[in-house]
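In practice, a research group might receive sequence data for several interacting partners and want a quick structural hypothesis before committing to experiments. The following worked case mirrors that situation: the sequences arrive first, and a predicted assembly follows.
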Amino acid sequence: MSKPETKCWRNDAYAKVTGKAKFTDDLKFVNALHAAPAYSDFVHARILSIDTSAAEKVSGVIRVLTAKDVPGVNRFGQIIRDYRIFADDKIRYHGDVVAVIVAETREIAISAAQLVKVNAEPLPAVLDPEAAMLPDAPLVHENHGSNIVNTHVVRRGNVDNGFKQADFVIEEMFRTQTIEHAYMETEAAICVTRSTDGVIEVYGSMQHPFSTRRFVAACLGVALSEIEVIGTPMGGGFGGKDDTAAIVCARTALAAKLLGRPVKMVYRRDWSMRESYKRHPYRVAYKMGVTKAGRITAVQCRIVADGGAYCSVTPWVTWRSTVQCCGPYVVENVHCDTFGVYTNNVVAGAMRGFGSPQMNFVIEQVVEMAAVKVGISGIEFRRRNMVRQGSVTITGQKLDGHKVAMEQVLDAVLKEIDYEKKLGWCSHGKTSTTPQGLGVRQPSAAVEREPAFESGGGPPQSKTLSRELEQDELYGMGVAMSYRGVSLGAEGVDFCSAIINAQADGSIFLETGIHENGQGSESAMLLICAEELGVDLNRIRYRRSSTSSIPDSGTTVASRGTIMGGGAVTLAARELKKKIAEAFCEKLHCAADEVRFKDNFIWGKATRMECGDMSPLSSTRHVASFQSADMSTHSKISFAEAMRQMWAMQKFPFALGVFRAPRVSWDEHTGQGDAYFTWVYGCQAVELTVNKRTGKVRLLNAVAAHDVGRAVNPEMVRGQIYGGMAMSAGYALHEEVKAPGGKMTTLNLNTYRLPRSMDLPEMKVIIVENPDPVSPTGAKSIGEPANEILAPAIANAIFNATGVRHFSLPIKLGAMPEATACEEGCK
Amino acid sequence: MKLFVNNREIEVPASAMQKRIVEFLREDLDLTGTKNACDIGACGACTILVNDEPLRICVKLVKDFAGARILTIEGLAAPDGTLHPLQQAFLDCGAIQCGYCTPGMVLTAHAFLLKNPRPTRDQIRQAIFKNLCRCTGYQQIIDAIEKAAPHYQREERGLQAASASEKAETQKSSNDSELAGVEAG
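A structural hypothesis for the assembly, expressed as tokens:
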């Protein structure tokens, strides 16, 4: 059977749990040199000269590299080529690298890096994105002509008319913070010139081997074929190992090429924090009109994203924010203006969620605020406005061709968390019309709800609470939901390849253009391949990925690994089966399209029982019914024997599968179009307490339901959701990169506050499966959907506990003396 | 100076005494399973067991470990490669994603379960508090540790049995000691 016996299966788990897995820093090459970056202390300055002489004199330093050593192009970027491999004309942020020291040891390289002196003329730093947009603002990139990187709009209906129809208008300003991916493994690269043919092999921690290759080749001024990026186990990415990771590889490759020795550069955590790009901080002005009947009539919003010093993928990140600026709600009148802005802050780029976590923090609070105005529950308000089968999105896309599962996931979460009951437990009255009461609990509400805390039905006795409510704690529960366009959408070219190469003994190589970031993509691809070919998993080996062996399939981001890679694997497997069927149908006494692949055998004409169920990833139940049929009358040949015979017939059991994303469309002027070829739906809820005296938030329980299309490796799907919720909890409550005056002070994991085990609650995951017709496997996405809604759920729960809305992230709660005073006074 | 690493006696050259122990393990002994992700003892990726106690070693020097009995992740599985039940539980529960925190996490859990073979989930949560994981939200890691606990309970009973039988041997005849072993087991 192709399904593994164990509860969860990963091809790399054994190596990882025994310490045998070789991450980049674990690789060793004889005679290797070590490299370290040198920074300046400027935030914005015009470079006059870079003095490397003192560093060069240090014993053990082999060479100091600067921009003038780059034989090819010193500027790179996926959209605008503005990112310097080495700072040349200006310092644009505190993380700009001016030089790389290459030395006999890492220690020498690090100590010499401090001796690099930058002589520069300081320029006024642009640190506020709003100020950066003003006409007289100093320019970060003079040749761009403005600090506005990009704009996007949505123009739908007429918002003036929409607001006229409204009985209530909610208008708020929201801010989100800069956060760090904090992958456990920092950026790292080892580059080695292959002596036989001069090709430079790049081993590194990056999630886009193909763009890494592109940037390395451009930097060195060589052809793509002269660089081979080789897949290496990677300690997490979360969207963060694209640009910066590629640039680290480019600098290392340059050193290896110029010096003719292997070079290793492993980033120290403080370099990684200082230099690597972050999640965009947003400012969002949001205005929503609603009727007494609880219908949204109009949304107007203005989104300003601080992109920092370089463009990176700011236009794409902000595009997703724009497309999804009304959340999963039908709104007829929308006016959205989005700006991506250059500043002298740390670069912002891709991070898990890619523009949606910021917007969902806004939208999922605004709908609750609107519900309060209307006098209905937030859930009822959502039901009246959310997308359903056949709904048209704010960009004019009709949601059909897949199951619109918004209500399905919402209902699943409400049931699991016991929403109706828990809402009654909340310390703040859900129908309160004074949400700005700054923690003042309404006396009536307090009296009404007091028994819930002390009688048998209250939170302390709940099964879901691992610890009892403590004194001074307020209880809250909150929900948030979203829909999300799958994969890249109209951002760009979206296709992926897979190669299946069966060997003469029946063993199989599989490779795809999707990269193993730690999420388990290889395992998902292997499971899909085994099921489609009807062979045991242990027959298939994932071939170590290399940019020289598989066509460029884009970057492993946008939660596109399973849908795009899995699609390509399925198509490759079908192609291979076609070749095999044509070779053996005569021997099996049937037509080629009647040949079946099951249980490591290739079968002749099928029984009726097996007909009509040839879906990929078919259930084990199907396998059982198939086995129960009398197979003795069927011609069959073992997979291994068939492969042997194909070799004898001079036919290669080899197939390339290419999955192209279905068509999408976008009109940049109106912000209308079929933005994504399919969508996923998710809902999460959280229970928490807030301590009135300390403001401490304690998470008690979290529930998530996501429609993933089809769960290829269910335990890994759960892992994605648990991890996504954890990261979103950190976003809500703790995480923030601080950089007063543009100089980052949050430089390691002691000051950057990641969620630890004690910060998180027990979590429950509900996997909803509605196989998607456009996906060859039926599977869709989970990495990012899981990471974009717990923060607003927490914000809503805090409101339901305290009566206070929070419009900025991270949510900072202090003591609530007023509440305490009232509490005492009321009693 | 001597070290005992994964049941192997290591003679430490004088030149290595001032090295950081994490580098000595990774570079000199090629035990690269021990990771270093922050250099300041904040993340727990460098956790190893020193005389059965979990220790974050990224800021510690070789000379501080004279005569120490060290267990790294490479020493946990059986010599034939069979996984320790705790490692197997990590696999079965989906507790591994990128794997960078895994060695430190497994060893922290191992030390904890040796002392507390009957933990509650909250106690497990507390036990891994010093080990950061960015991928999993800790849920499946806690599942795995919980799943492995019965193995440590059996080990504990085994140890009790062994110590009971040892006592019996010194005090009674060999016939009696066999009986004590059976009873305790």
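Before designing any experiment, note the following. The mean pLDDT of chain B is 91. Chain B has two domains: 1-75, 79-185.
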